[in-house]
Design a protein that fits this description.
The protein has 2 domains: about 270 residues, Rossmann fold, CATH 3.40.50.10540; about 80 residues, 2-Layer Sandwich (formyl-coa transferase, domain 3), CATH 3.30.1540. The chain has 18 helices and 13 strands. The strands form 4 sheets. A 6-stranded parallel sheet has the order 5-2-1-6-7-8, with helices on both faces. A 3-stranded antiparallel sheet has the order 9-10-11, with helices on one face. Strand 9 and strand 10 form a beta hairpin. Helix 1 packs across helix 7. The longest helix has 24 residues.
Length: about 400
Amino acid sequence: MSGPLAGLRVFDLSRILAGPTCSQLLGDLGAEIIKIERPGAGDDTRKWGPPYVKDAAGTNTTESAYYMASNRNKRSVSIDIAKPEGQALAKRLIAKCDIMLENFKVGDMARYGLSYADLRAGSPGLIYCSITGFGQTGPYAPRAGYDLLAQGIGGIMSVTGEPDRPPMKVGVGIADIMCGMYATVAILAALHHRRETGKGQYIDLALLDTQVAWLTTIGLNYLTSGEVPQRVGNEHPNIVPYNVMPSSDGYFILAVGNDGQFGKFCDFAGAPELARDPRFATNEARLRNRRTLYDILPEVTRRKTQQQWIEGLAKAGVPASPVNDVAQVFQDPQVQAREMKLTMPYPGAAGGKVDLIANPIRFSETAIDYRLPPPVLGEHTDEVLTGLLGLEPSEIASLKARGAI
């Protein structure tokens, strides 16, 4: 392993998206991830399809695209932590790990004897990260939490969508994904603290807290003004023009960030008078006269093709882009140049490989390490129990017979 976290080991009891996002990122950075799954069932998202990875015969495998998105660089070990034998195995493995990650409901880990309070005496350097919907405290703590609930309670849906349409969630599970990102940052900070003090610690992360935190500018607009932000569609609450605009043959994004860019846009558009108009000369004025300007602009932007706008505004130094569908994303020359589509060997798939989305981090010295494709359920159980715990084949067979693994 060559990543910056090489030598660290993670006991990963998480599933769905937030936790697996965190552990995949840690794995990409070089950490060894031991993904613990319930025998015969595994991560719920394995069955969240179609689509599924197909084998050489064109038949669906047991791995959905959803599961594949956040589970590379992990070894899958099937252990039933509801059984005493499984709990004992888990504790032995945790004792050999630096980090434990779990996203069970509040109180579940204590019932299995795997809470931080249960483990800290025997593993004082352990960094234990819990991810839940609402955190370990507060009136909602006992509730199950999902991304959509966090988006709803956390306010992002209230400002997403068109003004005259119902609230809309973000198109991906962004509360889950951002919680996984925050979890990664917290774990890395705790690792630094442990290096300085020798002490591990407990990390309590919630989808809702994460969602509230990344309201960022929208949240501060409210806290500063007392005015409740409203849905503005593709528009920006603080910048005008910043929107999807019509061209003569489609749509393009116009993202004017300052008055100088607005003047350059107007010059290229053949409408320099707009930049001189006192209603639009400054961003503050454009904000006050938002509706008037947006009523005028479509007539101007329909004078050129989408490509003329994108190429011409790029030369003028004005941010503009197409609105790509997902197929166009992976055909985009910039995305291809950055190698954001990753192909990995995968023996069970048609052609012996699968396409994944690459990690966006680029290091100069410690490259991202794509070692393992997303594992099938329990693929590495024998390997890990033999290699880390020294179990004999007869012991493993006995545990399988009792349903502990």
